[in-house]
Amino acid sequence: MRLLERMRKEWFMVGIVLAIAGAKLEPSIGVNGGPLKPEITVSYIAVATIFFNSGLSLKTEELTSALVHIKLHLFIQIFTLAFFPTAIWLFLQLLSITPINEWLLKGLQTVGCMPPPVSSAVILTKAVGGNEAAAIFNSAFGSFLGIIITPLLLLLFLGSSSSVPFTSIFSQLFMTVVVPLIIGQIVRRYIKDWLERKKPPFGAVSSSVLLMIIYTTFCDTFSNPNIDLDKFSLVLILFIIFSIQLSFMLLTFIFSTRNNSGFTPADTVAIIFCSTHKSLTLGIPMLKIVFAGHEHLSLISVPLLIYHPAQILLGSVLVPTIKSWMVSRQKGVKLTRPTV
Hints:
Shape: globular
Order of helices and strands: HHHHHHHHHHHH
Structural class: mainly alpha
Strand content: under 5%
Helix content: over 70%
C-alpha cells in the first residue's frame, strides 16, 4: 500500500510538470472563456469535487481516540496556523529588499497560511512509527480549520488583490468548499462499509482534478505577455523553501523534546511532520478563489507547488534518521524506569 502511495505521488509530480508544459505549449485551451471554460469547470465544479472527495475520505470517526491529547493538538495547530505564517511574514520583510520577484515572495506568504495536508504527514509519521493517531487527527482537524482560517490569513497578510468582492469570496468558499465537504461526510456515514471494502482511489481523483486546476492556472499566465519570471528568483525561492522546511523541522524538534514538554518521542515525530507540512490539495483551490482573476495567480502558486514535493522529499530522506532517534529515545526511557 505504501509503495502504491509513493508511486502515485511520483506520477503526480510528473503530472505537474506535464500540466505546466502543456499550458506553455497551448495556453488558449485553458484560459477564461476558452474551450475548457475554467471560470465554471474549475472555479466551481473542480474545487467542489476536491472537497466532496475530501469529505468522503476523511475518517473522522477514528479521531475520537486522539482527542485527549489537547496539549499536542494545540502545539501543532498554533505552530501551523499562527507561528508559521507570522514567522514567514517577518522573514519576508527582510527579503523584500532583495531583487527576488515580488509575486514569488507573496507566494511564500501563502505557503505559510496553508493548513496541514491530509496524507503526507500521516504517511511519514507512520513510516517512522510515531503517533499516527495524533497525525491523523491534526491533519483532518487542521484541514477543517484551514477552510475558515486560511482565507482569513491570506486576506490579512496579502489582501485579496482580486476583482471579486470580499463577501463573494467567502460565499464562493462556502458553496464550493464547506458545503461539498459536509455533504461528503454525510454520504460517508451511509456508505462507510462500502468505502472500507472497495477502497476507492480518493487520492487519484483529487490529484487528477488538481492537475486540471494547475493547468488552467498556468494557461492564464502563459497567455499574458506582461508576465516574466526570471530564473534567478526561481532558484533563490527553491533554496529558501528547502531552508524554511529544514529550519522549522529543527525548531519543532527542539521545542517538543525539552525536558518539561510532556511529549513522548512518538509525539515528537507527529509534531515534526504535521507542524511543517502544507496542503497543496486544499491550498491551490483556495488561492484560485481568493485571488480570482489576478494576473499573477500562477506566480503566487509557484512556491506552494515547490514546497509540496520538497516536504515529501525531505521527509522521506529523514525517515531513517528520525526513526533511529525515536527508537533510541524509547529504549532510553525503558532503561531509566525503576523495576518493581
